[in-house]
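Can you make up a protein sequence with its backbone structure tokens?

===
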Amino acid sequence: MASAPRYRRLKTTVTHPPRKERTAAERGYDWQWSKVAKLARERDCQLCQDCIDEGGVVLATQTLVEATEAHPVDHIIPAHVRPDLFYDLDNLRTRCPRHHAAKTQDDLKRYGAARR
């Protein structure tokens, strides 16, 4: 008796198009934000305020280019929770990338993600 031909199941992977990240302008970071963030960085002497609280001193950014790209100035109360405090200098704090990432994770747990 002849055996039936064997068929191999092809591995198929579903590929989704890469998720397009919104630009800073699309997220609301405009020329006014640039001015307020610059004032906050100058007020904090470009130093991470969380590192200072821990007893150390770390530059919030390495270069001015990174400062504008990485936005090391962070909202103490997230902007999606209190949009009225978006440009409030008292609600801004300069952070290094490590502390900014930790604060973002804490905000996600506490407040949830912002609506898109």
